[in-house]
Amino acid sequence: MAVTSKKSKSKSKVTTTPKQTTKSKKINFDFVPTISDSEDDIPDLDEDSANESETETDPTKPQPTTPKKKSDKKKNSAKKSKSKTKTNNESDEEEEGSKDKDLNPDFIFNVGDDLGPDTNFDGWDFQSGGDAKSAAGTGADVKRDVDLEGIIRRKGGLTGQFANNGEDDGDDDEEEEGKDEDEDDEEEEEKEGGDDSDDEELAMDGFGMGAAAKPNKLSEDDDDDSDEDDEDEEDEDEEDVKEEAEEEEVEADSDQDNDKEMEDEKDEDSPEEVAKFFASEDDESTQAAKSQIHKDFQSMQLSRPVLKGLQALGYTKPSPIQSASIPIALLGKDIVAGAVTGSGKTAAYMIPIIERLLYRPAKIASTRVIVLAPTRELAIQVADVGRKIGQYVNGLTFGLAVGGLNLRQQEQELKKRPDIVIATPGRFIDHIRNSPSFNVDGVEVLVFDEADRMLEEGFQKEVTEILSLVPTKRQTMLFSATMNSRIKDMIQLSLNKPVRIMINPPNQTATGLMQEFVRIRKREQSKPALLFNMLSKLDSKQQIRIIVFVARKESAHRLRIVMGLLGLRVSELHGSLTQDQRLKSITDFKKLTVPILICTDLAARGLDIPKIEVVINYDMPKTHEIYLHRVGRTARAGREGTSMSFVGESSQDRAIVKEAIKQVELTKSGKAVGKNVDWPEIEKINKVIQEKQEIIEEILVEEKQEKEIIRAEMELKKSENLLNYKDEIKSRPKRTWFQSEKEKKADKLGTALAKGKKINSKKRKQQEAREDAGGSRSYKKTKTDRVEDQERTMKRQKPKNQEKNKKKKRNGKFGTKR
Ligand SMILES: Nc1ncnc2c1ncn2[C@@H]1O[C@H](COP(=O)(O)OP(=O)(O)OP(=O)(O)O)[C@@H](O)[C@H]1O
């Protein structure tokens, strides 16, 4: 399906020609040969400890009508000046001053001869996720929250040198403090220098690596909307529970993945399967498109508004994945693409999508593109990138169908049938089922971002349901940094001879990434102290962004309290937080208000905050794949970054380190080193933490009590609303759910069973009970659901119709008839 454009009639077609081909260099799109399974060249981890038992501890998307265009132009210019102001406001002097200093000039965003990326893109923006009425512009309800920091403060915490950043006062003392801190730092550096010898056993050789192994809706609008919002509350609460369950799956996924999965990765597709499934390498147009390397976006025959959008973002040259994917996507072909984290995959699919919409305008408003992402935050970010690229395209509209954000607001947005809808699967299905004016019959393009994740068991049912609803005649594109999905998993997507574009070898890390590994041995209990020690040494003034990954939500929360008690202000990000809290954590992190973010794997994929300097794996992930996504939060777009991993003695942890070293050696990308730490110093800190255990428990109890009070207040309000708006609430069509929370849980159990995991008898009984009940429920509204809906709608319309009839009668009596 060749894409012709208005422009192409007078100018040139988007299809590629042999002429273009001769000018261009050829790049290899194939997978780099499979990594040898032989571990001969891999330095062994310390043998003695290899025999020690594993310990697991937890210390803590144009409708071009002329009038619309005019107003849109106005809007666009307003938008433009607005975004300019925003950029000025957002980039503080220091950041500007140091802009892209940290970029790696070798990074191949620029295939040409000059510098690394000079992008104006300053990360994603939640403000564009919804209207400005509510917190973070997302339409998310602002609900009363527990003041955890207040509790920590009352318990004597957050008093240290780290606590006064952000909105706090204490300006006068800042310089003084700065001096002291500098002196302290010097002292600490000296100490550190002297400590190297102290920890020989934990040094790089400890890993057998030798030296560096190369390399509330309670705001103003409440007066108008509060009634409706309150009525919605019940629905939304229930919906939030479902969404939470969905998100939990994202997080819990790493719990489900195990060594078995790593083995599966090695289960390669056969050459015959590959030849049958993927487009032939000999396909002429694909060949022509593939063999080019575009030195700039102009040579891709992109339209002026899109080029303007890219220019505004500071994207001068396409990254390799963009250079390779855009021409093929413009041909309307299905794509399965993989490229290293932070290499610009979002724009790689967003640019051709916008181009397609621009040159094939729809006659009537319809949603033509669906982008599916595994997490809410990623979906919001993708929408933001899309909006920014398409900011000069008249009438281009985006919609979000993302869990945790205001359902009614989204419904209103989707009613207008935005061109591009970015969605998380659960909420998307919810809208298709329950938002009558939204449908997906006009969908032409379906994108799976983080496709390998979307094809995993956690999303299987949702994806199957979505696929059954969208038209089969469509373009489907799959993108991920770890696009290792097997053909058997992709078959359900009904891809039409997809073109396989693999830029980097699978499992490669960013070129500018320094991977450091700290061996924990039996000091699991000292990990919080180690974390504190590292955080304070890394950034005594809390001026760099550090992201810390932990295995469990509880650990994230506990660590936040521990760090707070030691005077270090950190944020947490995981599925147990409300969406408001989640967005606030990210916004604070982005603005450096709270530059340390402790999170679960919810934030492992796709999150693009350009200046995350360090990623700490406090708990190692379960698989090397997740490790790649986590460390991929730094060293993005050709920048440099460091990852520090706390490596335990489990075979799983050790296997990931081995794989990381192996990949560095194989791909010659980045570095991997062992790191010494000052254990005596850390043990001192650990002692302090141990002494605070009681206080930590007290804080947790106090927090729980506050939460219960808030919950009781909310329940009370809900009951009042239920009484006050009973009739209205009852007349509403009953929302139907894709899966109940119970079903989700039962599915998880099923997954566990399928994976051969041991489950206890109670859980097994639950699973059996579910199977007895007929297994999974039907996904579409049942006939009964529909009849009930109709009855409710009729009931609701009855008073209105009665009113209309009365009016008609009145008009008959007193109206124009004489
Ligand atoms: N052509 C370009 N020139 C300069 N910067 C770019 C270009 N394309 C993308 N970027 C920037 O590179 C960064 C990474 O892009 P993006 O988030 O799309 O990466 P990704 O490959 O999807 O990463 P991940 O695999 O982690 O999801 C973003 O900050 C983006 O603004």
Automatic annotation (TrEMBL):
Residues 295-323 form the DEAD-box RNA helicase Q domain. Residues 530-693 form the Helicase C-terminal domain. Pfam families: DEAD, Helicase_C. Gene3D superfamilies: P-loop containing nucleotide triphosphate hydrolases. Keywords: ATP-binding, Coiled coil, Helicase, Hydrolase, Nucleotide-binding, Nucleus, Ribosome biogenesis, RNA-binding. Residues 682-722 form a coiled coil. The keyword ATP-binding applies. Residues 326-501 form the Helicase ATP-binding domain. Residues 1-12, 67-85, 755-765, 805-818 have a biased composition (Basic residues). It catalyses: ATP + H2O = ADP + phosphate + H(+). A motif (Q motif) lies at residues 295-323. The keyword Hydrolase applies. CDD domains: DEADc_DDX27, SF2_C_DEAD. It is found in: Nucleus, Nucleolus. It comes from the Eukaryota. Its EC number is 3.6.4.13. GO terms for biological process: rRNA processing. Residues 1-273, 734-818 are annotated as: Disordered. GO terms for cellular component: cytosol; nucleolus. Residues 141-152, 782-804 have a biased composition (Basic and acidic residues). Residues 37-57, 166-203, 220-272 have a biased composition (Acidic residues). Associates with pre-ribosomal particles. PANTHER family: ATP-DEPENDENT RNA HELICASE DBPA (PTHR47959:SF1), ATP-DEPENDENT RNA HELICASE RHLE-RELATED (PTHR47959). Belongs to the DEAD box helicase family. DDX27/DRS1 subfamily. ATP-binding RNA helicase involved in ribosome assembly. This is ATP-dependent RNA helicase DRS1. It comes from Ambrosiozyma monospora.
